[in-house]
Amino acid sequence: MALIQYLTQIHIDFGAVALLPQECARVGMQRPLVITDEGVRAAGVLAMALSAWEPGRAPPVFDQTPSNPTEAAVRQAVKLYQMGQCDGLVAVGGGSSIDLAKGVAIAATHSGPLKTYATIEGGSALITAAAAPVIAVPTTAGTGSEVARGAILIVDDGRKLGFHNGALMPRAAICDPALTLDLPPALTAATGMDAIAHCMETFMSAAVNPPADGIALDGLERGWAHIERATRDGRHDREARWQMMSTSMQGAMAFQKGLGCVHSLSHSLGGADPRLHHGTLNAVFLPAVVRFNAGAESMRRDRRLARMAHAMGLGGSDERGDTVAAAIQDMNARLGLPSGLAAMGVKPEMFDRIIDGAMLDHCHKTNPRLASREDYHAMLAASM
Fold it and tell me: Which residues belong to the signal peptide in this entry (predicted)?
């Protein structure tokens, strides 16, 4: 049975961040804790968000979110949350800050270690409506966590795990492209390819969700047409920034359908080496996974490769995925992203550990073609 559910209230426009106090009041937050990171503060973006409140009334801030959020950072933020007797969270930042806020939403209101509530541990149903409410203000156009019911966190045993429950869905997503205007080109490219990967991978999933398919294809078309412009002249190209913000939001609205091997591999490798950027990993893994997925019956039956190629402005039927895969590789090169895993410091001796994690990842079973260990090894080798 297909589950189709869209619940998040979304504001998307330049200047939308001014709605923050209003949205906090709407969802009943009187004493929110702001979750962000040092980079967002240093770039002046946090100040833009806090300026929505009257002088002297801005909420307290936790700005120690790591690039790959950890259970240890969740504990630090929970202490501040409890000290301030806070009643909700406002995440201002990229996917890391938003996911950390979701981790705090669980840990501040539920007992036991975070892994208890991980999807792969059967813990999704243990997350209750008691979870603290979250409002998300994305400052990159990438993860789409602002409209997603899930979070990815590194727990104390080193695993990078997913947490999924409707109670974690942000009560509001305030998508203000102005907050992304000063995003550096390298981060614009990496987060933009993350959003594009969400659109592509969820569209390839065999799960039945026609609205998600439509949203993903439209997001892919927008992102593919504008990511180079946003990367090249993001400070001045407001149209490209708006379109990439929409691509990010649409990819996450769609990926309730499920993702696949790209994310299984990225989650596992990101857990093994937290220094690696998730969006960059997705960009590097996409070509090999597209070629692997081309053999899936659902891909052929529903002409999914041809439909993606059309959205990307490519020609040909592309039955083996070569046209789409080659276009992604060319785009990665034009954006200045790494040519492969080897350029990111990944060694073949890491493969077994990466595959172990990928086989257990929550995205593994929603790939349109179930991958074996040998399949994952081939995808890793092709991505080097």
Answer: none
**Is the domain defined by 9-179 classed in CATH 3.40.50.300?**
no
Q: What is the mean pLDDT of the chain?
A: 92
Instruction: Say yes or no to pLDDT of 137 above 50.
Output: yes
Sign of dihedral through CA atoms 180, 177, 145, 74? Answer: positive
| Inter-residue contact 150 to 162 (CB < 8 Å) | yes
Beta bridge partners of 88: 32
Q: What is the CATH number of domain 185-382?
A: 1.20.1090.10
Write down the pLDDT at residue 317: 61
Alpha-carbon span 50 to 310, nearest angstrom: 42
What b/e sequence results for 112-125 when a residue is b if at least 16 CB atoms lie within 10 Å of its CB, and e otherwise? eebbebbbeeebbe
At 228, which helix (H) or strand (E)? helix 210-233
* Residue ranges per structural domain of the chain: 9-179, 185-382
**Residue type at 152?**
I
* Nearest-angstrom CA–CA distance, 164 and 149: 6
Q: pTM of the prediction? A: 0.89
Nearest to 168 by CA among 215, 100, 250: 100
φ, ψ for residue 64, nearest 5 deg: -105, 30
Task: Note the pLDDT tens digit of each residue in 169-199.
Answer: 999 999 999 999 998 999 999 999 999 999 9
Q: Is 382 exposed, middle or buried (0-12, 13-18, 19+ CB in 10 A)?
A: middle
Residue range 228-254: mean pLDDT, rounded: 94
Mean pLDDT for 108-122 is 94
DSSP 8-state secondary structure symbol assigned to residue 8: -
d(CA 85, CA 172): 21
CB 35 within 8 A of CB 91: yes
DSSP structure string for 103-114: HHHHHTTS-S-G
User: CA 358, CA 372: separation in Å to the nearest integer?
Assistant: 10
Query: pLDDT of 263-277, one tens digit each?
Result: 999 999 988 888 899
DSSP string for 229-290: HHHHHTTT-HHHHHHHHHHHHHHHHHGGG---HHHHHHHHHHHH-TTS-HHHHHHHHHHHHH
Find where tokens 């079973």 sit. 365
